[in-house]
Every structure is written in C-alpha cells, then in structure tokens.
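Bit of a strange request maybe. I'm writing a small parser for structure token strings and I need a real example to test against, not something I typed by hand. Could someone generate the tokens for this chain?
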Amino acid sequence: MMRVRTMSTEPKLVRGLGLLDSTMIVAGSMIGSGIFLVSADMARQVGAPGWLLVAWIITGLLTITAALSYGELATMMPKAGGQYIYLREALSPLWGFLYGWTLFAVIQAGTIAAVAIGFARYLGVLIPSVSETTYLVAPIHLGSTYAISVSVVQLVAVAMIIVLTWISIYGLHWGKLVQNLFTFAKIGALLALALFGIVLGWQADVVAANFSDLWTVRGTLQEVGPAITALTVPFGLFIALCVSQTNSLFAADAWNMITFTAGEVKEPRRNVPLSLAFGTIIVIGLYLLVNVAYLITLPLETMQQVPSDLVASATAEVAFPGYGAVLMAIVILIATFGCNNGLILSGARAYYAMAQDGLFFRAAGKLNRHCAPAWGLIIQGAWSIFFVFPRTVKTGADGTISYGNLYGDLLTYTMSAAIIFYILTIFGVFVLRRRRPDIPRPYKAWGYPWVPASYIVLATIILIVLFVYQPAITWPGLIIILTGVPIFYYWQFTARRDGIQLVNAMEE
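Reply from user aminoacidic:
Good idea to test on real output. This should exercise your parser:
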C-alpha cells in the first residue's frame, strides 16, 4: 500500500520562495554568532596568521564543494525534507532517519538554543539587567556534573524561540520577510565590520607582525591532541588544521537548510542549486574578509588571548574606540535573530517529511490553515526550549564553580556526526548516478566526479583525525547517531501497521 496521500481539500505546501528568498535562507542560516568568536580558538590551535587563513579557506572549499554537489540531489528531488530525503533515496530509509533523528535530537534543537542564548547574552550588553547571574531559580545541582537554572538570559532565550516559532506558524510569508530583512542587515553589518576594520582599524605594526611573518607558529597554543600542538611539526600542524575545522565548519554550517524547504521554493530545480551556490559563496567570502580585518587590527597573540574569545568586539573597539562592544552587540543581535529564524523555519520541514513517511510524530506531518507544519514547529520549539535550562558544572582547582550549557557539549559531539552525514549525502550523488541514470538532472554536480570526490576524501581525512586525536568530542556523536537505530525500527513497525509505505521521491 502506498503512503496515504493528503486530501485535496487539506492545506498543501505553497511554493512561495523565490531565488532571493532561498539565497537569504542559505546565507541567513549560516551567519550566527560563530564568525564573531571562533577565530580566537582557531588562532590558538594553528598558531600563525597564514595558517588561520588557510583553515578558513579549507572550510570555504569544503562548504562550497558540498553545496555544489547537493544541487544535483535537489534538482532530482525538489521535495520538503532535503537531506533526509536524499539519504533515504540514495542509501536507505534507515540512514535517512538517522540523519533526521540526529538533526532533531541535538543538531537543530541544540543550535537553536545556543543561538537564542547568544542573542540574550549580547542583549545584556545593551540592557545590563539581562544577566546570566540574575537568577529566578539559582542553579540546582544534579550531582557534581550537571545543574538546572532559570536566569533572565535563559528567559529571554525562551522568549526568542517562542516568538520566532509563532511567526513561522503563521506561514511562509511572514517567515521569509523576517529572514530577508535580517539577512540583508547582517550581510551589511559583516561587510561593514570587515571594511571598517581594514580601513579604520589599520595598524601598521600589527600588519607588519602578522603579514610579514605569516607562517611562523607563535603565542599561546592549545593542545589538539594528547601533548600535541601546532609546534609538533609537521604532523602537529596538520592535526591542528583538521581540529580547527570543528570551529570554522560550525560557524559556516546550516547552509543545507534550504533543502528542507525545497517543497516551498518556486522553480526548485533552478532556484535551490543556485541559492546554495550564491549563499555559500557570499558567506564564505565575507568570512575570509572578516578574518583579514581581524589580522589587520589585532596581533595574532592578542587574538589568542581576547577575553571570552570576543575577537570581533576587540576589532570593532580598535576601529571605534569606546563604542566597539556596543556596536558588535547590535550586530550580533541582528545576526542571531536572523539565524534562528532560518533554523526554526527550515528545521520543521525535515520533520514534516519524516512524519509523512510515518517515521516521526504523525501530527508533525500535517499543515495548518497557513500551510505551515505547525505541530512540527511546536515540537521543535519545545525541545529547543528544553535545551536552554540544563547546565554543565565545572569546579576549578581553587574550588570556584562555573557553569556551561549542556547543548554546548552536545553540539561539539555532533559536529563530527554532521560531517559523517555530509560525506554520506555526497556519496549518494555517485550511488544515484549509477543506480538511477534515467532520472532527469537539470543541474549536475559541478566538476563531477572529481569535485564531489575531493570533498569526500578531504572530509574523511578530517574525520579520521578527529576520531583519533579528539575522541572525547567525536565518539559520543557516533553514539548519539546509533541511539536512533531502535527508534527507527519502532517507527517503521508502527508505519507498516498503519499501512504507510515510502514513496520514491524521484517518481512522485
């Protein structure tokens, strides 16, 4: 029996996203708070200005190559669900579900929570009463490792998630308006940061120190493996470059969100691959320019030791003395608000496709009168809000206690999982070329087979290095993926019991 079809009288997804809207979803979902922070950690890992730029170039090549490869899959299967559908069709329903499960369980909800907390923290720069240390419920310890708290920052984060979820529930029209407005604003803000940093923040002595000696490893270095730093040459530098990708790839992630909303894109066989290419190229170009601005205004040794890794704020302070912190707070507020809007809008479309296949809560597969997957949005929002409250507890050598966020650890764990799924999805291009050569491909992966293959090889090398030298942050991600196996078989059993079977996305 085929999957139960939606009755013609029921709401259907509306193709309301043009090329500009789609490109803004790609770019807007990518630009969050990461670009303003991660370069400090990367500077400690690679230890030289030139290698910092090389690390970002590697990220750019990986991201753009992956986007160009995904374009072929998008033209073959322009349906809601994106990467979930691609893995389902190319490999198996199990692999599709494991991606969707990891996306729901940690990647999407954890990222939404992280971006919301980032928004609230920077709101505190403008409104001091919005503070992480102003508690309605002080941390309640659950053993020595975890705690739960309710602070003003956490409440603001929850409010942000609720507001953006509510906007998306009212349909694609409002969600895309918010996305376009904030993405244009933050692209302009990033460009301004780069240009003002270069022009107004130009420091001749800093430029001489960083650019006349691009490759000498220096300053405060971070271990990238057991007793390994970038000075453990040459292998240590290679490991450092690979490990640094966990930061830069995270900052450039979420470019695939448009594939989740492909069922709502006008002329998807044209606009989805174009938006993937345009969006990733724009953002990667901006990221490289911003890092050049960092290196023009700040010595690498200063970047390595910037308090709280606020390297963008330090750059803005050089360009605008006395106003840098406030200006960057405004920029990051814009960036995080637009980023979360894109994440919330897109993520529920993946769960919609899973629910249509009987592999998720059935209510998530239905649309409201605004043609939006309301229950999918509500479930995603509730799970994201859950992640706002658990804290991690660290006790220093002097007995002082500091608090982190549980989602931070989980997202660190799943960065390697995300790379696994990117590799498998691009491998799916090769599988479908061989298995289904008859399916029309209005766009074919640029540079096939060499360009997609280069992504698989390079990403696999990075993945192997992470599993060998960073086991504490990689193996847990694999465990999170594997927890989805029994859940898949449970959902599959209930789907078969209810007479629901998968429909080939390339032949619908």
